[in-house]
Amino acid sequence: MEHVQTVIAKDLLKIKAVFFRPWEPFTWASGIKSPVYCDNRLTLTAPEVRNDVENALADVIREKYPDVQVLMGTSTAGIAHAAITAHILGLPMGYVRSGKKDHGRQNQIEGRLEPGQKVVVVEDLISTGGSCIEVVNILREAGAQVLGIVSIFTYGMQKGLDRLKEAQVENTSLTNFDHIAEVAAQEGYIQPADIEKLIKFRNNPSDESWIGGNQ
């Protein structure tokens, strides 16, 4: 798995799907200052990287969840990854909307899902875990047996880890914040001294003392 983590980390850095800038932080919608910008949708427009990502997701699912019957993507970023991975595996797929449609059949789960079917959720990234756990709960309420979550990237934030544990669902990511930070330093995207700042942010996103070199 470490080899896969490194390959995916290099891929995401190369196309700036994960982009570190500890010297000039980004501002999230919540107002939190962040040294990292993540947009794994960019993998979809980079065919070589997309191939690495989807085949790695398929390999994880084959290994960990051989009994899976349906893949379900999170809306909207996980939909394409679920579709491509399902195609590789020869499996049905669907996705879960963020809310019910206000017309037609008013579906929240798109695609056929029978009660009792074994499902793996496909997500692009996990930070605090709220959105993917909401998807897990919706699928469970519909009678699905959720085997686990597979994702491209995870921050490893404690809030997310706690939520996953509380929901009794396992996530497996192709790479993670700590590993990609190490690769970024090795590849010259950031300085080795920046890693401590990045980890400090990861451990407590609301603490801005890492900005400007403050320790």
UniProtKB/TrEMBL annotation:
Species this protein is from: Candidatus Avoscillospira stercorigallinarum
Catalytic activity: orotidine 5'-phosphate + diphosphate = orotate + 5-phospho-alpha-D-ribose 1-diphosphate
One Gene Ontology MF term: magnesium ion binding
Function field: Catalyzes the transfer of a ribosyl phosphate group from 5-phosphoribose 1-diphosphate to orotate, leading to the formation of orotidine monophosphate (OMP).
Pathway named in the protein's UniProt entry: Pyrimidine metabolism; UMP biosynthesis via de novo pathway; UMP from orotate: step 1/2
Subunit details: Homodimer.
UniProt entry keywords in alphabetical sequence: Glycosyltransferase, Magnesium, Pyrimidine biosynthesis, Transferase
Keyword Cell membrane in record: no
Binding-site list for 5-phospho-alpha-D-ribose 1-diphosphate: R97, K101, H103, E123, D124, L125, I126, S127, T128, G129, G130, S131
An annotated GO BP: pyrimidine nucleobase biosynthetic process
Protein name as it appears in the record: Orotate phosphoribosyltransferase
Domain spans labelled Phosphoribosyltransferase: 47-163
Recorded name of the encoding gene: pyrE
Family of the protein in this entry: Belongs to the purine/pyrimidine phosphoribosyltransferase family. PyrE subfamily.
EC number: 2.4.2.10
Positions bound to orotate: S127
Cofactor(s) for this UniProt protein: Mg(2+)
Ranges that cross the membrane: none
Keyword set includes rRNA-binding: no
